Amino acid sequence: MGKPQTIDEYIEGFAGQGREVLEQVRALALDAVPAASEAIKWGHPAWVHPSGTILFMVSGHAKHANVAFTPSTREAFDAALADFATGKGSVKLPYGQPVPGDLLRQMIAFRVREHEDDGVLWM
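Structure for YdhG-like domain-containing protein, as requested:
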């Protein structure tokens, strides 16, 4: 099978806890930003603002999922993310642990505001 063309195809490529976490992040994203469209960008699920700017992305890996925001969004939540491994703009969600839904909702809301109010584009 080739590269996934839809988020459904992407998620179907995972099993068990990986699929569960990806499905939870997707459901959370659809609820938090219903105006965003779903797309595959660089081979990974992304949620795109109606203006065409990527808001955030998710990627699945062997033992965790990454949710990638802009570095400014991730930095705004440094204190709340103290118990998570993070990258430039990403948060690592280990499989087998609860998805931090409330925190991700806050980060998504921040990301939408920083784009709409401050004009922050994707990386």
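The helical segments are 7-12, 16-32, 71-76, 101-118.
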